[in-house]
Design goal:
The structure holds two protein chains of two kinds. Chain A contains 15 helices and five strands. By secondary structure, chain A is α+β, with helices and mostly antiparallel strands. The chains are: A alpha+beta, B alpha/beta.
Chain lengths: ~425, ~220
């Protein structure tokens, strides 16, 4: 995977930082970020209190010890959600989905994961200490606000009879406005410090609760390639099912119809010319339809490929190709079914290409085993210039091969000749 | 004749039974491979007519049953019916020896032709579906060698490959047996095939020739 294909999660984070970089204090202070940071710092204690309360409640019932161990999981969920206040980058869960459904399966998966223990540790430290430190830092802004409002407080609240602020600024009189000036001067550096602190805290949260990019990307790639394999095999299974359904349903009925019409032809020997002609016509049409259906079914999924393997199926493809094809298949035993299907698909598509575009006079298909790899070569003596980017056919071949962890190389210079080489690893 | 027919589709099983019983044969009908093997073991018939794809696997049970039946009852004639224009299957069958046939199912609609094929197989002959022979003759890589034959010789070659006897070929063209024998001699010489007179071995040689190319290379 190249970096341009799918931006890793870090990219979003960097973008957010570019919008309001901590390194540019003035722009930062004009943004919403300081206020979001304050809100984030001031609300953490709610999660902490609820988590502590929940944990204590569970402690009453000793049997729920296991549930206690998983306490970091819901906590992580809430904190990842809250993290969005200060960090707009995606915060994917570090937990992997259990491979089967069910409560026990879920718990089993979670207990076995390092992420669960990281979350639990962070939940403890956060609830007992960090969230309260956050609260104190967040409250700094309240102190500054109090300084700014110093003269106002004295005027509005009569009971407020303070001593001089910091022992210097009196609570009443014009001199008290010095406090407002001082507060306004303090506000930017305080906001800046709070935001910087929140950024550091957010990074810490991300470290403990959010999926690390590398591991996550790996897992996503694995999941993606597994799902591609599943889709491919579902597609093959679907084709094979359609072939079976047509054979057992439509083809049989049509054959039954042909038998019936065949008998009718015999019994109509004495009937009128028109009647005999009509039945004869119906009979011919039914046979033509069956012949066409056979061809169609064959293109969907050749039955002989499943039953007898590549050799007869490829020989058949070669016979149907408008260009003479030399076929050499040298396999000690049959490869696994998905590999056979892929090889057939590659050969079929390549020969279609030869017939349509190559203007070749000869073509060849060689198939052999090298170690645990099936090596497939298709070539012709045509005009070349086949471009995988140009048509979907050749690109489809690359997709097929890559799903099976194989490779496919097209060598088709202008003027020819064209060679296609596919390597499909398989266990056999 | 006493026949066992094996076909999993009830519709076709009844149609086949009707046609064969109508021709005066004594028919036992079964629906799968085990039924077929059981019916033959219980009371060996004069010939077997079987679908190629049947329960339990829906793959090539008819062929495998034919193989087993020939091991247990060496001479038992077997006619396989199939939806597949596939000479790989036909070839495997022919390699069992005489008294075999491979026909596409819709050929049954040509009732007299089908009944004649059953008789032919039961008599130890070989029957290959004309569509399969046509496909073999249509193969590009043998076209150049086939051009050495006259039109009539190519027609005769197709009929040889289908397993037809000299007499039946002669009847089709309304000529004498001797004339046909001469044609066949010419064909076999032009294709460098041994001058076989035994019907089945001749079919084998011609089919082998048609399957392989002029360099003798396996497809």
């Amino acid at each position: 995977m190249t970096p341009t294909d799918h931006p890793p999660h870090g990219a979003g984070q960097q973008q957010a930082r570019r919008r309001t970089p901590v390194g540019e204090p003035l722009r930062l202070l004009r943004s919403a970020r300081p206020w979001r940071s304050i809100a984030w710092l001031l609300t953490g204690w709610v999660t902490a209190s609820l988590w502590i309360a929940g944990t204590l409640a569970l402690l009453v019932v000793p049997a729920l010890g296991v549930v206690l161990l998983l306490g970091g999981v819901p906590f992580g969920g809430v904190e990842r959600w809250r993290l969005r206040m200060v960090d707009p980058a995606p915060a994917p869960s570090p937990h992997r989905p259990p491979d089967r459904s069910g409560v026990w399966r879920w718990m089993h998966t979670r207990i076995g994961e390092p992420a669960t223990w990281r979350s639990l540790g962070y939940a403890l430290v956060f609830s007992l200490a960090l969230s309260w430190v956050d609260l104190v830092v967040g409250l700094l802004v309240v102190c500054v606000a109090q300084v700014i409002c110093w003269p106002l407080l004295a005027a509005v609240i009569p009971e407020f009879e303070p001593d001089a602020l910091f022992g210097l600024i009196p609570g009443e009189g014009p001199a008290s406005y010095a406090a407002t000036v001082l507060g306004l001067a303090l506000l930017p550096p305080v906001l800046y410090l709070i935001t910087a602190y929140a950024a550091a805290r957010a990074a810490l949260t991300r470290y403990f609760l959010v999926d690390r990019d590398e591991a996550g990307a790996d897992r996503r790639v694995r999941e993606l390639s597994r799902s591609r394999e599943r889709i491919l095999s579902a597609m093959d299974a679907g084709r094979s099912r359609i072939e079976r359904d047509l054979h057992d349903g439509t083809q049989q009925r049509l054959t039954g119809l042909i038998m019936t019409l065949g008998m009718a032809r015999l019994r109509l020997a004495d009937a009128s010319e028109e009647a005999r002609a009509a039945v004869e016509d119906a009979y011919r049409q039914a046979r033509t339809t069956l012949a066409e259906l056979r061809e169609l079914v064959r293109g969907i999924h050749p039955q002989v490929l499943t039953v007898r393997g590549l050799s007869p199926a490829v020989a058949d493809l070669a016979e149907r190709c408008a260009v003479p094809v030399d076929v050499r298949i040298d396999l000690p035993q049959r490869p696994p079914e998905p590999i056979e299907a892929a090889a057939w698909f590659v050969i079929s598509e390549a020969l279609t290409n030869v017939a349509k575009h190559s203007r070749a006079s000869r073509a060849w298909v060689h198939c052999r085993r090298r170690g645990s790899t099936l090596v497939l070569e298709i070539g012709d003596d045509g005009i070349g210039g086949a471009d995988p980017a140009g048509g979907t056919g050749l690109l489809g071949l690359s997709d097929r091969a890559s799903v099976l962890h194989g490779t496919i190389v097209f060598d088709s210079p202008k003027g020819g000749p064209t060679r296609v080489r596919a390597e499909l690893p398989c266990d056999w | 004749m006493r026949l066992v027919i094996a076909e999993d589709s009830a519709l076709l099983r009844e149609g086949l039974a009707l046609i064969l019983a109508g021709a005066g044969h004594d028919v036992t009908a079964v629906g799968d491979m085990d039924g077929l093997l059981g019916a033959v073991a219980a009371d060996p018939p004069d010939a077997v007519v079987t679908d190629i794809r049947m329960p339990p696997g829906y793959r090539d049970e008819g062929l495998r049953a034919a193989l087993r039946l020939r091991r247990e009852h060496a001479e038992l004639p077997v006619l396989v019916l199939s939806q597949y224009v596939e000479h790989a299957y036909a070839t495997e069958l022919v390699e069992l020896g005489g008294g075999v046939g491979y026909l596409l199912k819709d050929r049954v609609g040509e009732v007299p032709e089908f009944l004649a094929a059953v008789e032919e197989v039961a008599a130890g002959g070989t029957v290959i579906d004309p569509d399969i022979v046509r496909k073999l003759l249509g193969r590009r890589r043998i076209q150049t060698t086939l051009e050495r034959l006259t039109d009539r010789e190519r027609e005769v070659l197709a009929l040889i490959a289908q397993g037809r006897t000299n007499a039946s070929i002669a009847a089709q063209f309304a000529v004498t047996d001797a004339a046909i024998a001469k044609h066949i001699g010419n064909i076999l010489t032009k294709l460098d095939l041994p001058p076989e007179t035994d019907g089945h071995r001749r079919v084998l040689a011609v089919l082998a020739y048609l399957r392989y190319d002029s360099n003798g290379e396996a497809p």
